[in-house]
User: Which sequence fits this backbone?
């Protein structure tokens, strides 16, 4: 509940329109209350006491008030839309900015779908509460109190009788709400299960067909389909009972007014006009009660939404700039790890331990090791995606924690294994790291990355749109665009996650050439799956279970280090054949270059 | 298929189309005609009860309250109570019936759509978006549901009620009735005027919301790239832009809405004022009584509700018709690969496979395979090599009969594949694909998918043969470990091992393998290789090969280029020949880790 109040501060920029909306609401509510009083006067003074002027003036006033009331109601609706949409806009921006700034460690455990829900539906819940519910609650309360007061003025006895129906309405409503709410949640869950079955069936259609599992799948679907239907029926029955019952209560109030009021009129303690006005007021009093009950539910939902929103907004950003962080001058590219240890949380095992090495400017460092040995974690420490738990990472002798983040990351380029492109044109994607780059610079980068030829083959060339997450391009093409992207930034330090998997030989050849161009004159770290990639590195670090198990150049390692030789040989069919192949590869490469 | 559906709607006479759709929708209701008739009766009864109450109140005022008749008042009030209770009961019962019918119809529709998905050929799935198909089964059926559940009955009920109000008013006093009806056409006109605009505006704001989600989705999943390139400010700016567009669209939609309700309010109050003003003057002349005015006030106030309901329900019915069209278009989709009427089941296969001049293309004029012929003896291993796009996967798809050949034929044990029941053919052909598909569920369930009746011991034995047992046992819950969305909690290599175990458990006579080229670490790779070797032993295997070791062991290597087999023979024979294969082999560098793919020789 506390988080609900925290959301009020988002109303602050909209205080003016919000107060105006409130004023408009009060005025239109007052209009609502006046109209039955007018009809009472028309009947009692006009009809019963034969004053035609009262009738005509009354009817005219009624139309005038209706127009005014409509104008205020419109104003209120417009202003509250402005306020609530403004609040939603601000909330989304704040959330989005925070998500963009949260460190990698946060995103490791967060799911995209979850964060998405927070920025969309949770914001909606809070928005509805702040923008509509608060105003509506005030309006409903005003209407309730106003009509009650007027009813007591007209006839205290009748008012007391019908007042008894209010609590009944609240109880009935609360009862159904309590029964229905868990069923709604359960229904959502079952529908999700049905969707998962369907989605997997569609995505795995080949497997389903290949294993002839149609009967099995159909049965599974039927079971979930039945589960959904049964629950929907249950919910439906509750609603089918609740809605007419609530209307019955409203109707009963009219009945009791007519009945009790009728007796009062007969006993001459009330006029017919008052009775007519009374039947109007009683409806005005009953519906705010329903509305307030609804709003209570909306407060509970808004509270849940607000809590989830603040969970994100309050999340700690692990990687923060020191207040006295300095800009990073143009660097040479010397990278030093000093006794670096790293783990995600204290309760978790070490990912890296006691890692020390130094890369000289322009050197090529290959990282070798099994999946999960810590290669990627090591490179993630250089651009400060994470901070080391122990030890220091230095660039040109400066601790990376002492420099400005933007400055640091601008000097470190990364090509990840899984290439991620954004919606937009190819040109925009290459210019992602340097939006101000000229077309000439972009083309130059693409040429160096061996991407220019295939890009110009598209009818729209560099303006070809990349579908969401690059689905329309082949794997090799995406990788080359990612390499061009890194090239354009012209970083001094480069990190490559062995990006040459799952492409055919020719493409691989082109990629390798692109990468060689990219690495020239930069300090480069290559996460290698294969020893072949590491062969001509200046330094090879063999990582095993988070420690540097061996280091050196290829030849030395082959002779001295068992684990490296083992890695090497298991990847080969035999040394002899390999030598032969290496020669052929070099020949093929020079042939390609010549072409 | 979507485009075809849209095309159809454009070409055909639209009104007729809606007629056909409605008729088909009503076909779903036919089995429930008895309860629906009952519901219809209840709708009428309910409207009558609703009409009775203002009349009774007017009676009470005129006959009893004005004249001071207490017993009469009590009697009328009891009648009124009866009318209210009757209104509630008929409403509840009618809801019960329509909800039950609606849910059953919905169940049937979902079932039919799902069945259709199981029957449709892969060609259909190739050109459809999974999201769109999902949406038909979820959102479209839901739209129909809303209409069936409440909409239709209420639509009818409200029209009936409105008509009843008019008749009752005319009956009580036709002059006053006609005067107060003046507002009715105005209310209808403004309802349609506004609801059209509200719908258009909310469509825009839904689109804008879609853009916000797209932007969010892309940048949240790409947050690492954004941070790595220091692009936070720019993406934030872009997000603010779509966010503001969404806000403005919402404000527009809500502003129209904010004008809509008060406008109806004005008309309804004008109606009240007319009744009071004109009716009051008439009462002064003695033409009507006070009770008539009270009754009329009750009726006029009740205009408001049905008019608005009819407006919204009209929109709802339109949405439902569009949704139904989409579902029916799907149900009408032709199944391309169908069992011939005289197709026979395939008895225990020996595993003899023969392709005779097979030609095939996914699109009409673009053959992917041309006159491909080869023969595999039972137990043989055939390796297919060639560059990406040569047609390797297509050969496999044809053997599984995911598609039918355009020319030539495929024989299994000497019988044309088209004369064999699809399912009995596939039951004897096992497949391990490059990207392994796992279902949500436990590891045990996923392996058991190969043979549903397998005992736990059989499953574990298969996992052991596949070399998957040791890593499975290290998982938090062993074989009972729940796999996340498509097995995302496992590494690629682990997923492959589970797929191999699945195939081992299925124990097919014919095996199709697509060797992985993705990067798994060396140790896992060795385990996978060994598992595959055990899996292939004694079966006819067709392998899309990338590894030298596989190719060397093959009984026959088919070199595929641009849809043709350009060379064939054993590894040694092909090397000796010194043709394209030799070049391919030569260009392969550094041993086993690399893939044997290359470019086709220039077509000559």
Assistant:
């Amino acid at each position: 509940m506390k988080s609900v109040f925290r959301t009020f501060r988002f109303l602050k920029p909209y205080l003016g329109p919000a107060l105006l909306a409130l004023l408009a609401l009060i005025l239109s509510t007052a209009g609502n209350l006046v109209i039955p009083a007018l009809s009472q006067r028309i009947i009692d003074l006009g009809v019963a006491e034969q004053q035609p002027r009262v009738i005509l003036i009354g009817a005219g006033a009624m139309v005038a008030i209706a127009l005014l009331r409509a104008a205020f109601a419109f104003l209120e609706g417009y202003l509250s839309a402005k306020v609530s949409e403004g609040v939603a806009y601000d909330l989304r921006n704040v959330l989005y900015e925070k998500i963009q700034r949260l460190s990698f460690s946060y995103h490791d455990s967060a799911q995209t779908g979850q964060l998405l829900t927070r920025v969309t539906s949770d914001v909606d819940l809070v928005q509805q509460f702040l923008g509509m519910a608060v105003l509506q609650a005030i309006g409903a309360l005003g209407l309730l109190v106003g009509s009650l007061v007027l009813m007591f003025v007209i006839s205290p006895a009748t008012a007391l009788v019908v007042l008894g129906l209010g609590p009944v309405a609240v109880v009935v409503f609360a009862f159904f709400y309590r029964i229905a709410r868990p069923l709604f949640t359960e229904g959502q869950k079952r529908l999700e299960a049905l969707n998962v079955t369907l989605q997997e069936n569609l995505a795995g259609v080949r497997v389903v067909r290949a294993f002839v599992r149609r009967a099995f799948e159909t049965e599974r679907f039927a079971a979930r389909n039945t589960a959904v239907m049964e629950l929907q029926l249950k919910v439906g029955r509750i609603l089918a009972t609740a809605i007419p019952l609530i209307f019955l209560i409203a109707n009963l109030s009219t009945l009791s007014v007519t009945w009790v009021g009728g007796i009062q009129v007969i006993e001459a303690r009330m006029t017919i006009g008052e009775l007519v006005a009374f039947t109007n007021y009683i409806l005005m009093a009953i519906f705010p009660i329903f509305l307030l009950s609804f709003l209570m539910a909306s407060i509970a939902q808004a509270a849940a939404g607000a809590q989830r929103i603040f969970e994100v907004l309050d999340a700690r950003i692990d990687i923060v700039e020191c207040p006295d962080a300095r800009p990073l001058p143009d660097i040479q590219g010397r990278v030093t790890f000093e006794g670096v240890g790293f783990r995600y949380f204290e309760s978790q095992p070490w990912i890296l331990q006691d890692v020390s090495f130094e890369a000289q400017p322009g050197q090529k460092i290959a990282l070798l090791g099994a999946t999960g040995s810590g290669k990627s974690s090591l490179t993630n420490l250089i651009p400060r995606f994470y901070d080391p738990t122990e030890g220091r990472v230095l660039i040109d002798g400066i601790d990376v924690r002492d420099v400005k983040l933007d400055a640091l990351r601008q000097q470190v380029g990364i090509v990840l294994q899984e290439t991620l492109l954004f919606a937009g044109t190819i040109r925009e994607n290459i210019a992602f790291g340097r939006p101000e780059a000229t077309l000439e610079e972009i083309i130059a980068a693409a040429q160096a990355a061996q991407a220019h030829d295939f890009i110009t083959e598209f009818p729209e060339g560099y303006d070809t749109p990349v579908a969401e997450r690059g689905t329309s391009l082949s794997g090799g093409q995406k990788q080359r665009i990612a390499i061009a992207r890194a090239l354009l930034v012209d970083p001094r330090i480069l990190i490559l996650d062995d990006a040459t998997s799952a492409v055919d030989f020719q493409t691989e050849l082109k990629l390798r050439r692109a990468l060689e161009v990219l690495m020239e004159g930069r300090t480069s770290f290559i996460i290698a799956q294969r020893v072949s990639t590491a062969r001509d590195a200046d330094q090879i670090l063999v990582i095993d279970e988070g420690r540097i198990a061996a280091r050196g150049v290829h030849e030395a390692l082959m002779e001295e280090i068992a684990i490296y030789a083992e890695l090497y040989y298991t990847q080969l069919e035999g040394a002899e054949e390999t030598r032969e192949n290496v020669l052929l590869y070099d020949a093929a490469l020079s042939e390609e270059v010549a072409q | 298929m979507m485009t075809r559906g849209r095309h159809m709607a454009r070409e055909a006479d639209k009104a007729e189309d809606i007629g056909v759709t409605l008729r088909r929708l009503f076909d779903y209701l036919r089995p429930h005609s008895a309860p629906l008739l009952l519901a219809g009766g209840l709708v009428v009864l309910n409207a009558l009860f609703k009409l009775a109450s203002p009349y009774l109140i007017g009676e009470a005022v005129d006959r009893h309250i004005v004249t001071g008749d207490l017993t009469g008042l009590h009697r009328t009030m009891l009648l009124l109570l009866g009318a209210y209770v009757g209104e509630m009961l008929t409403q509840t019962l009618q809801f019960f019936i329509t909800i039950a019918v609606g849910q059953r119809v919905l169940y049937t529709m979902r079932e039919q759509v799902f069945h259709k998905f199981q029957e449709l050929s892969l060609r259909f799935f190739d050109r459809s978006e999974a999201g769109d198909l999902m949406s038909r089964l979820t959102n479209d059926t839901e739209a129909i549901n809303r209409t069936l559940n409440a909409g239709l009955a209420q639509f009818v009920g409200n029209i009936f009620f409105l008509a009843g109000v008019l008749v009752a008013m005319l009956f009580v006093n036709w002059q006053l009735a006609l005067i107060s009806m003046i507002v009715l056409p105005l209310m209808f006109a403004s309802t349609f005027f506004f609801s059209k605009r509200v719908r258009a505006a909310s469509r825009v704001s839904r689109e804008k919301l879609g853009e916000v989600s797209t932007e969010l989705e892309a940048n949240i999943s790409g947050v690492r790239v954004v941070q790595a390139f220091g692009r936070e400010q720019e993406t934030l700016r872009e997000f603010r832009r779509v966010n503001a567009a969404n806000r403005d669209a919402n404000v527009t939609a809500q502003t129209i809405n904010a004008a809509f309700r008060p406008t109806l309010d004005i008309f309804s109050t004008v109606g009240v004022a007319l009744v009071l003003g004109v009716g009051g003057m008439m009462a002064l002349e003695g033409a009507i009584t006070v009770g008539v005015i009270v009754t009329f006030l009750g009726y006029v106030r009740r205009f408001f509700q049905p008019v608005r309901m009819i407006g919204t329900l009209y929109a709802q019915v339109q949405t439902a018709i569009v949704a139904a069209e989409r579902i029916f278009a799907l149900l009408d989709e032709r199944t391309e690969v169908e069992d011939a009427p005289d197709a026979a089941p395939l008895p225990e296969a020996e595993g003899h496979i023969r392709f005779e001049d097979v030609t095939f293309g996914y699109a009409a004029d673009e053959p992917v395979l041309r006159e491909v012929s080869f023969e595999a003896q039972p137990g043989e291993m055939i390796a297919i090599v060639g560059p990406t796009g040569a047609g390797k996967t297509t050969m496999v798809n044809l053997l599984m009969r995911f598609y039918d050949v355009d020319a030539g034929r495929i024989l299994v044990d000497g019988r044309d594949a088209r004369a064999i029941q699809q399912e009995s053919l596939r039951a004897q052909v096992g497949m391990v694909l490059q990207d392994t598909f796992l279902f949500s569920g436990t590891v045990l369930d996923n392996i058991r998918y190969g043979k549903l009746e397998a005992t736990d011991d059989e499953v574990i034995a298969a996992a052991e043969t596949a070399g998957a047992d040791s890593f499975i046992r290290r998982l938090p819950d062993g074989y009972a470990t729940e796999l996340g969305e498509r097995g995302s909690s496992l590494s690629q290599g682990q997923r492959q091992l589970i797929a191999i175990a699945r195939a081992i458990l299925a124990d097919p006579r014919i095996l199709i393998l697509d060797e992985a080229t993705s990067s798994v670490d060396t140790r896992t790779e060795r385990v996978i290789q060994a598992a595959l070797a055990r899996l292939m032993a004694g079966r006819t295997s067709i392998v899309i090969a990338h590894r030298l070791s596989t190719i060397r062991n093959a009984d026959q290597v088919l070199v595929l280029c641009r849809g043709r087999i350009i060379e064939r023979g054993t590894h040694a024979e092909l090397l000796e020949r010194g043709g394209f294969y030799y070049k391919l082999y030569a260009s392969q560098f550094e041993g086993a880790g690399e893939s044997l793919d290359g470019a086709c020789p220039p077509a000559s």
